[in-house]
Design goal:
Blueprint (H helix, E strand, L loop, with lengths): L1 E3 L5 E4 L4 H4 L1 H4 L2 E4 L5 E4 L11 E4 L1 H4 L14 E4 L11 E5 L4 E5 L23 E8 L5 E7 L9 E7 L12 E8 L2 E7 L8 E7 L18 E9 L4 E5 L1 E3 L3 E12 L9 E2 L4 E8 L17 H4 L6 E3 L10 E4 L8 E8 L3 E9 L15 E7 L18 E7 L2 E5 L4 E5 L5 E3 L8 E8 H8 L11 E11 L4 E6 L16 E4 L3 E2 L2 E2 L10 E2 L10 E8 L3 E8 L5 E10 L2 E8 L6 E8 L4 E8 L2
InterPro entries: Carb-bd_dom_fam9, Secre_tail
Protein name: Secretion system C-terminal sorting domain-containing protein
GO molecular function: carbohydrate binding; hydrolase activity, hydrolyzing O-glycosyl compounds
Amino acid sequence: MLVGDGAGNTWWSNNIDDVTTRACLFDDEYIFNKNGSFTNSFGEITEDHGKPETWLEGWQVGDDNFDGVIDWKDDHCGPIKAPHDGSNAATWSMDETAGTITLVGSGAYLGLSKVHNTAEDGLPASNTITYKYTLSADTNRLDLTISGFNADVPAAMWEYEFVRKGSDYTPPAKVEDIVVLPGAYVNAVTWVDVPGEEGETYSVYASRKAFAADSPAAALIGNADVDLVAGDVAEDGGQANHDLTIPLSDRWATYYYAVVCTDAVGNKSVVSSTEAPVNNRSRGIPVISLSPPASFAADGDLSEWEASGIQPFQMGVTVNSMGAPKVIGTVDDDADASVKLYLAADDTVLYMAADVTDNDFNVGEGNWWEQDALELFIGLYNKRGARSGGFTRGSAPHYKLVFRGDTTWKEMGTNASLGKSGDGNYFNTGVVGSPDAIIEFKVRFDALAAIDGDSVFKPVKGMKIPIEPVWHDNDGSGWEGNIVMSKTNEDNAWQTPATWSHTFVGKYDGAVLSTDDLVATTFSLKENYPNPFNPTTTIEYSIAIAGPTTLFVYDVLGREVIKLVDEYRPIGSHKIVWNASNVPSGIYFYRIQTASFSKTRKMVLMK
């Protein structure tokens, strides 16, 4: 069992030692009778008390250790206490559509007697408690959650796991021989299958912090310091790849890895982990900036975005901010379709701009997804751990925003209009039969949340946000292809967020600052100094997006004279000195080239 804030942070969880120190809790039984009656049962009667024992807490026993304070130090195994002793009649009911189990009866409970839907005092309203449940396919395992007990953190949640009496609940042995092989922006995690198991699966976890040796697998679920790299890897698979990303600029990052085996009936091994961390380069990716353009206006003019230093997400036939470009259908080249997408937010508003290159913009009759249109899939919550398989609302809502011609709207949940081009919130410069388009948009988080009654999102630096932009391309003869961001998106982002990519809010990944430069720079190539010069001159330049960079010098005939820079360069300001003592006087040109910026300047050598 464990309890956390419902957003990925665990406050407390059982550990392996509790099986011994809290044995009186782990032998409790919960009996669901076919006639609808329910019973709490507590094992054998003890000689000391003449009653069975269970786990008692301070609110039940008072200041049991006489230290003047009623707290967790008073918790211990002790004789069952009314009304939570199974002596009162109770019933149970299940709502399969809602996925809930409800108990009615004085003292009836599952897991911990204190926890109910409005508090943690063992006094539920009308003696009724409702739990959310998941039942395994073989019906031998029951997972429960309950929330609403913490007024300060409404999403806070207790999680319990139960097994059917008499079923196999012997956990598999721990995973051995975990090896991590670093690659280009990826760590390949390998292991050896647990001997003697059949039909088992494996889950791989990553953390910047060391894992506790032989800790229970439940301690990983909901832990904000832990990400699930891969789940349900089949036996004989033996490998999972961890794609390494970090906000803004490539940086070296250190990770520990753990693997957990789940046997064919759902029992989990203890956590087996690497003892030493693995250091590898993480890919710097654009983020949702917490500094929106001060002069933002939805008017089709991107100058405020270009001057802001905010890095755009890029996707096309030859470029993709997440790595390998991904095209669905047919898109000829970046001139046929490519997108630069800017995202920013403040406490109340999401801002977006898209610089769309499209050699033939078309919007007409028929299905909108067969026209030139932009989709932005986004989850407005801090997503750590496994990717969601299905769409959710409430405290972890998923949205699909669609931008087609002069209209924009929301899908997933309730479809709702978000504006018309020129209304101050949305602008699209696309003209049928003409190339390219600029799209600008803003929406209040509370207005978006109100459509489906979701929790209102507030961005916090370090959050990890699921997103997936998609551009639909139509060159006048119908849909031809899509440009997408995620390498796993097979034109099914609208069906499952498991195929989406992700980003971060601000310059942090959780609590880790990703870059040495707290202020993002812009691209620039400054005039050399001195100019004219003899024989040395200094050239200064700045990089806004880390990556491969070249700075070459050419003569007036365009012939290369020297390579001053030809390597990966990090974000920030740089300078280099050229000694031209071995070349003749004359006019020369120097040119910088990166994946998204190029510029040429002239200099004069006078000897």
